Amino acid sequence: MKSRTRYLIAILLQVSLCFKACHAGGEDDDDYNDKEKKTTKSKGVTYDGTSLIINGKRELLYSGSVHYPRSTPDMWPSIIEKARIGRLNTIQTYVFWNVHEPEQGKWDFEGRFDLVKFIKVVHEKGLYVTLRLGPFIQAEWTHGGLPYWLREVPEVFFRTDNEPFKRYVRKILGMMKEEKLFASQGGPIILGQIENEYNAVQLAYKEDGERYIKWAADLVESLNLGIPWVMCKQNDAPGNVINACNGRHCGDTFKGPNRHDKPSLWTENWTTQFRVFGDPPTHRTADDIAFSVARFFSKNGSHVNYYMYHGGTNFGRTSAHFVTTRYYDDAPLDEYGMEKEPKYGHLKHVHRALELCKKALLWGHPRAQKLGPDTEVRYYEQPGTKVCAAFLANNNTRESNTVKFKGQDYVLPSRSISILPDCKTVVYNTAQIVAQHSWRNYVKSEKTSKGLKFETYSENIPSKLDGDSLIPAELYYLTKDKTDYAWYTTSIKIEEDDLPDQKKVKTMLKVASLGHAIIVYVNGEYQGNEHGSHEMKSFVFTKPLNLKTGDNYISILGVLTGLPDSGSYMEKRYAGPRSISIIGLKSGTRDLTETNEWGHLAGLEGEKKEVYTEEGSKKVKWEKDGERKPLTWYKTYFETPEGENTVAIRMKGMGKGLIWVNGKGVGRYWISFLSPLGEPTQLEDTICSYVGEDYPVSVKSWKREGAQIASRIKDMRLKATMKCPPEKQIVGVEFASFGDPIGTCGNFTMGKCSAPKSKEVVEKNCLGKNRCSIVVERETFGDKGCPKIVKTLAVQGYVFQSRDMVIPNVKTLSIDSATTISAFEKLAVGLQGLPHAPILVLLRVLADQENHKFDEFEGNDAGLFVNAEFDDEDKEADEIWEAIDRRMDSRRKDRREAKLKEEIKNYRAKNPKIKLQDLSADEWPNPTSRAAGGSETPWTDLTTVGEGRGTVLSLKLDKLSDSISRGIKQIPCSVKLWLEAAKLEHDEEKKSRVLRKGLEHVPDSVRLWKTLVDLANEEDAIVLLHRAVECCPLSPELWIALAMLETYEEAKRVLNKAREKLPKERGIWITAAKLEEANGNSANVRKIIEKGINALKREGVVIDREKWMEEAEASERAGSVATCKAVVENIIGFEVDEEDRKRTWVADAEECLKRGSIETARAIYAHALTVFLTKKSIWLKAAHLEKSHGSRESLDAVLRKAVTYLPQNEVLWLMGAKEKWLAGDVQAARCILQETHAPKESGLRLSSSSLRTRRWSGRG
């Protein structure tokens, strides 16, 4: 295998030498058609409004981010090769200043930091390079890539015009030029980036920010390196620097270059979300990424970069604060460099489809046409030729659409784009994935993990260090990025009369910290720990103390999880304890922050002695059965794992700390920081295929011949394919259905229609093979059933090593010693080139001290599935074999079931059921019953009967629990089963755990999320809802629920995101209006509703008047009266004919009154009266509403306004006067009557007399 890799690299190197000037690219043995091999004498890179022009040739660029320090040099060739096979032609990387110059003036370019070597590897593979220089990079890398020592350079502000920045830029670019790595020198670097997303912080720097951007642009352009430069998310990129887009959907969000002669470049298309400690898993689907790429290129885009294409590992202490060691694991190439399917394959296919459109995209004229409310076409034609390429888009997120283009009908699945390289033939659809699906799985290495034993060494706890300050030092300054740890010590003298007399009164230690975690000791005894989070670094630790009279010593270990990586004025960010006090003393609170001497010590003793190395480990005494302590080093030796696959460490029973293997820092782990959802461990390799019979033939089946698209192969039938890793083969088909299967890879279930021969056909084609394909046609399966549905073939198989030994994709070293404690979790990091008997050293600084009841799978509450088979970690290997045996036995399943049915039939024939009504009196049993022990139990013993009934009920519940548990194992994607399982739990925490397990299998279930959120407190509900909207971005109720719980500013951000995801959802706009109303911004409410209706119209949404009126009433019931009125004002006249307005509006108001919607009716009448100012009937109805449901003041206001427009209407005058009289204000009533006109005087005088009579007689 290794030699084969060497031969492959050698061949590629020869090709590279022979065709130095050819287009970057390449292909695997079954996929690649020859590219144009056009050479040119011109060197260097230029651009225009269409694309970059490399060595005189236009290019479409498909790029992927791969960071050289996040993988090992041994991995680089394999990663780059897989990127090339994935049809990338460019690799993008940051330059990491702080690894290259950790100390000022001392440079490091060795090992993982060998930037030149990495770029040359990319060049050898025939790919281009984009160099993102920084100096600031963010990248979830500690300090955003800036070296710590920069903080201590006098008068230096980060991300401004300063001398260290200039020196660094010239150093790196000088190296690249010296090594002849720029395209103008024949090298691979075609594009550079200076700074990173500066626009987000520029306003904070005011005029200095503008000067800095101009300075950065001038600096790189003045070097004349023959390549263009970009600034991402910098709308005002100066001069010739190109402004580029970062985000998930730049095809819709990017406003375009700031100058017409600059190309549209996408520097970061986020393939997933980076993880922080405490986060549940996140996922971005392959079809969503493909849709975004097709959209961008259809709108004149010519460059896309996937951030990340391979995330890798944050080795050592290189991650930013709270960022996990594993980085962007859900990228097309995972942490280990293995293909993450179907993401890898589906994006590979979109690149091929775009290549078929290359000529039209680069030389054609763009056109766009609306085909329907949710559909459109964007196409490029080259005048005078037959060159044409089209992108048919369906923007409806829920329904498919049929469109007509150039006289032909095309069916577009929901939210998808079909690519037609000749404006006729669909070669690719973003939603129809023909690439195979697969799981990555972990299996414990038996060779490595057997007999694993740890020795321990515990750190001494310093009680009193020499006092060097009257306040605790800042933690970043104290550690200087050399360690994560620093000690703070002080002492406090307690007199006898300081301690409280009452037993219930406790003295408390309170520590307010700016982050990230602390461990507290008092008088050498462990008191506890506390920590912040990525979102909220600061926290407060409080703990009751048992102080003694005399001197008491307080020791605090400050713990970091990396330095900050974003924002303005990073040099002013701080961490560590900021306020320490003793509460509960008789003399009152004693502040220790500024009144005590504080001693400090950076680093741990074990770090200074380098106990994680072979030599350093000899400097301390290790114990085999040491006492369990929080601050402990663990050391072991292990055998090199079997096989040549990636090795990972699974941390079981550890809290928080660091890992070293052979003296190399692998990374941080923090297992005890639990997320709202856990991560299950899979047990075997699984590959799947899911292809619908209406899918287009794989794009690799097509090629371009001039202006035409032609087939590359004779057999152009649609096929479902499965391909195993090298030296493995398919040994079983776990599931196969040609019909309407349900679920995803690993969780397929049968639908209502499936061809009977599905599994037989797949097994015949695939068993025992490394790769196989099945023609997706009804004839293949001899199937004539369900003729009216579009059928899909879903296949799930499992793979095996060709030899007799299982070698899975990832071998794990499972840590499980008697001295380890805390939660079950895993941390997997790539370990390359392990020698025989490597040394593993772990530092645990935080641990769960109350885990004696902790269940490894379910947490502290075991829950319904406590006895599930996967709970016992030590039996993993046996379970794998048992699972394989069970599945291999499936071929005999039909025979076994038939036999069982026959036996049941015979049993029932011999033992017929007895019908009670057929029994004679003599056949009835005696009214006594024999118990198990043979004694007689009278029927009249009701206590025993009750106990028996309870036992039966308990047994039934147990059976129900077992039944649901088994059902979930068989159908883990059944939402109904998970909900029923949760109902069986009586404790809310256990219900929550069951629901969280369900969400691991069905993360897009809105019902499960809603049920889980309902059980949570407000704080936890916010965290859960943030994850819920990521998993279910098309659920308006989840977005709205999150907005209702968040603060005002955060709620606005949530609703803006919701609007992007659901541009056609009216509920988002209504919630935004309610938010403004609740925060006293009533003036904005009407504007938001009006803007929302207009936005929905632009999206092609049909405005449903009845639905909007229902929303108005709902807003009233929710107490949002201003929102209710705004909706009525904007919608009441919609689609109502002019002659019907009065009748319709009055009817609307009366219906609202019947339903008790007073404010809605009031708003309708108010609007109607702005149109019909002189309609007495409407004024009277409005007055009657106020009389029945309003106040005297509101009624008076209506009547006063009414007589203003109808001064001759005596009914309104009399009504106003009467209301004043009834209120006891006779004088006001007289005044109203006196305001009337003379012609009505006699009648009105009579009315006035009548009013007095009624008043005096007591009649109302």
TrEMBL record:
<feature type="region of interest" description="Disordered">
    <location>
        <begin position="918"/>
        <end position="945"/>
    </location>
</feature>
<dbReference type="Pfam" id="PF01301">
    <property type="entry name" value="Glyco_hydro_35"/>
</dbReference>
<keyword id="KW-0326">Glycosidase</keyword>
<dbReference type="InterPro" id="IPR010491">
    <property type="entry name" value="PRP1_N"/>
</dbReference>
<feature type="signal peptide">
    <location>
        <begin position="1"/>
        <end position="24"/>
    </location>
</feature>
<dbReference type="InterPro" id="IPR031330">
    <property type="entry name" value="Gly_Hdrlase_35_cat"/>
</dbReference>
<dbReference type="InterPro" id="IPR041392">
    <property type="entry name" value="GHD"/>
</dbReference>
<dbReference type="Pfam" id="PF02140">
    <property type="entry name" value="SUEL_Lectin"/>
</dbReference>
<dbReference type="GO" id="GO:0030246">
    <property type="term" value="F:carbohydrate binding"/>
</dbReference>
<dbReference type="Pfam" id="PF17834">
    <property type="entry name" value="GHD"/>
</dbReference>
<keyword id="KW-0732">Signal</keyword>
<dbReference type="InterPro" id="IPR043159">
    <property type="entry name" value="Lectin_gal-bd_sf"/>
</dbReference>
<keyword id="KW-0378">Hydrolase</keyword>
<dbReference type="GO" id="GO:0004565">
    <property type="term" value="F:beta-galactosidase activity"/>
</dbReference>
<dbReference type="InterPro" id="IPR019801">
    <property type="entry name" value="Glyco_hydro_35_CS"/>
</dbReference>
<dbReference type="GO" id="GO:0005975">
    <property type="term" value="P:carbohydrate metabolic process"/>
</dbReference>
<dbReference type="InterPro" id="IPR001944">
    <property type="entry name" value="Glycoside_Hdrlase_35"/>
</dbReference>
<dbReference type="InterPro" id="IPR008979">
    <property type="entry name" value="Galactose-bd-like_sf"/>
</dbReference>
<dbReference type="GO" id="GO:0000398">
    <property type="term" value="P:mRNA splicing, via spliceosome"/>
</dbReference>
<dbReference type="InterPro" id="IPR011990">
    <property type="entry name" value="TPR-like_helical_dom_sf"/>
</dbReference>
<comment type="similarity">
    <text>Belongs to the glycosyl hydrolase 35 family.</text>
</comment>
<feature type="domain" description="SUEL-type lectin">
    <location>
        <begin position="714"/>
        <end position="796"/>
    </location>
</feature>
<dbReference type="Pfam" id="PF06424">
    <property type="entry name" value="PRP1_N"/>
</dbReference>
<protein>
    <recommendedName>
        <fullName>Beta-galactosidase</fullName>
        <ecNumber>3.2.1.23</ecNumber>
    </recommendedName>
</protein>
<dbReference type="InterPro" id="IPR003107">
    <property type="entry name" value="HAT"/>
</dbReference>
<dbReference type="InterPro" id="IPR017853">
    <property type="entry name" value="GH"/>
</dbReference>
<dbReference type="Pfam" id="PF21467">
    <property type="entry name" value="BetaGal_gal-bd"/>
</dbReference>
<dbReference type="InterPro" id="IPR048913">
    <property type="entry name" value="BetaGal_gal-bd"/>
</dbReference>
<dbReference type="InterPro" id="IPR000922">
    <property type="entry name" value="Lectin_gal-bd_dom"/>
</dbReference>
